[in-house]
Amino acid sequence: MADADLLVVGGGPAGVAAALRARELGASVVLFEPERLGGMCLHRGCVPTVTAVEIANRQRLGTESTPWGLNLSVGKPDLDLVRRRLDDVVDRIHAGTRSYLEQAGIVRVEGPGQVLPGCAVEVAGRPGRPDRFTGRGVVLATGAAFILPDLPGMDLPGVWTTDHCLALAEVPAELVVYGGGFIGVEWAQFYRAFGSRVVIVEPGPQLLPDEDPEVAEALKFLLEQEGIEVRTGRSLTRLEARDGRLAVVDRDSTLMADRLLVSDCRRPRGAGLESLGVRVRGGAVVTDGRQFTGVPGLFAAGDVPGGRMLSDFARAQGAVAAENALGLDRQFDPRLIPRVYHTRPEVGAVGLTEPEARSAGLEVVVGRADLGLNARALTLGQELGFAKVIAARPHGRLVGVHILGPLATEAISAAAVALKLEALVEDLADLGLGHPTVAEALTEAAKDALGQLR
């Protein structure tokens, strides 16, 4: 007899979502997590980072107060108080997560779970307690680890991961951020707000890799207006120590900095599972659209299968994995999950980018709305940005929506619902929205696209 219907290994966003979804379906659940619940997102990722971003935005309110008719003085930040604010937010969410799981009747085992053949999980180092559990199915949600790039000099003092940023021990005078994804941009803007000279070095052709190039290019322009230098298409070759500083070297140039932040060095924790028959590629567990690993009863979700490695993707994958592990049949559709980045201005996206839509063979129309006349953006003093709607001919089915602007991370939710309901562009154009809101730009962009269909 199985100890539980579902065994979940890992207590991050994917594991928690899998456990809760299984309980909603009436299944018994054992969750294995040796550390604090919430995973990387809560303790080392988006939650403390977005809190830090909000603190930087408040710093900007002081430095940019004069055009608002205010005269606010801004001094140096109290990093101890800032760090305590981050810790308080994390602690409150952690306590709520733990309480929620307990109320749901999920059994938690505080130990590292090792997946065994036959839908079993073993826990070492628990004298006098059960060390082997069996279930009907297993969801593997062990997340990712921080692994620095294999480059000469990466072991030098002054090389940071985001853990160093969250420690908030200092504000460096000169910072190079290696990696122009959303994590790198958010931390670049944080340190710029507190006076650092910042350069972003991105190996790929654009910021926000895999997002719409038009959005990425506009964000690059706005970062440069803010005083952040952006270098794309640059791969580092080595680091050197010079007079107590770091020389950051690529093929064509050398940058001097006090600190180098490797902004996203997460790698999936899939290594070692090959003995179970799991396929692993580049450390990531290979899964199909049902999050199935190919091994009977074993499903994987969250960062361990690789991909975008965003917490909202992890939660959706966790729920899908749980359902399928319990005998249901559901597919994970990444096109329906919004991507939100708390840069300044914010970025929200759902569905396909314009190049993705065209590469898929779709004949598309693209509608745009500038935020320069959006009432809410103007009241916020952040009118630089736009909304972009992508619809497929002949009927105008929505396939992608993108926003660059204030509150974009909230406004994109309306578009996510529209894609979920398989709406047409005319449905979005006719949608009644509150005024003044940034989301109104969605309807304006949809009207622009609709006019091209007629």
Task: Describe what is shown at a glance.
By secondary structure, this protein is an alpha/beta fold. It has 13 helices and 24 strands.
Can you give keywords for this protein?
454 residues; alpha/beta; 33% helix; globular
Structure notes:
α1 packs parallel to α8 (311-325), α3 (46-63) runs antiparallel to α4 (79-103) and α3 (46-63) runs parallel beside α6 (182-193). Helix content is 33%, strand content 25%. The strands form six sheets. Strands 1, 2, 3, 4, 5, 6 and 19 form a seven-stranded mixed beta sheet that branches. It has a five-stranded parallel beta sheet with strand order 8-15-9-10-11. It is built from 13 helices and 24 strands. It is α/β, with parallel strands linked by helices and 454 residues long. The longest helix has 25 residues, at 79-103.
Report the strand count.
Answer: 24
Describe the sheet with the most strands: 7 strands, mixed
The helix fraction, in percent, is 25-40%
Helix/strand-derived category reads alpha/beta
Number of helices: 13
Question: In whole angstroms, how far apart are the ends?
Answer: 63 Å
